[in-house]
Description:
By secondary structure, the protein is an alpha/beta fold. It has a single domain (9-294), classed as 3-Layer(aba) Sandwich (Rossmann fold), CATH 3.40.50. Helices cover 28% and strands 18% of the residues. The chain contains eight helices and twelve strands. Strand 6 and strand 7 form a beta hairpin. Mean pLDDT is 91; it is low at 1-12 and 14-18.
Amino acid sequence: MLSGNPPLTPSLIKQGDSRMAYTGRFAPSPTGPLHFGSLITAVASYCDARAQQGKWLVRIEDTDIPRIYPGSEDHILRSIDAFQLEPDAEIIFQKDRLEIYESVIEQLHQQGWVYACQCTRKMLGSNHIYAGTCRNSALPFAGQAIRVKVDDQEICFADRLQGRHCSNLQRDLGDFVLKRRDGIINYQLAVTVDDCLQGMTHVVRGADLLDNTERQIWLGRLLGCPELQYMHLPLAMNDQGQKLSKQNMAQALDLTQAPQLLQQAIAALGQPPVEIAQPREMLAQAASQWQIQRIPQGTRIQGIFL
Ligand code: GLU
């Protein structure tokens, strides 16, 4: 049982008291060019931060090398430029930070929270819940997946748009993977470590990531990170009722149309209209008018976006 143990605070992750009242971010993965759904997330995270005099950062989540789509990192950076979404610090790239994630795994290892696992996906069975088969096998780490232990307890958070959301990770998922057998650092670990180290206070992102949040809260607790405020945005859909995504070939943002697209993204978020101008001015106006109670309810935005 893990529940009696105190939370862990790896020396790497220190809780600075210089934390600002609000630090938010946009954290795209370069698995395809940015599309209209990504723009909605970027604009919402930017306006929410600016409306609260917060800092806003950009982080490229590029640990999953096999899924990187050629040219998409460049398109993301050009989009940030074209939409004049100006971050308050240099953009960071997770692929440059692999040593940090490895050292966090090592610390969790020393503290007994992670273990090597040789089970294949097939062995998990149809419900995909991992039963902890390798927990006590003490397998060597090299060439194996690394899992983190979870506990039999309800983890809940109050999403600013979606309301209360809970999961018992042991019941719903089981011990989950932090590093894959092929050596790739899992998104859950990288996102939690970086949100913590970058001093994030707020996460604004698509509702497709709602179900990942309890895993990140759990990891954040193990690492002694402060809790974050979450806001999961409804998703824009294509004409087949699927969320816009890189997988279903959502159209890349046309950077020659930045003001028009920005105007549409602000409207899709239910915000008061903004005049066409330089993107910087449009964003400033949108931030000054920002009201989260106007964002469409639920996890889907009505209307069809390509
Ligand atoms: N990198 C993730 C994505 O592009 C988003 C991560 C996050 O905002 O937590 O879907």
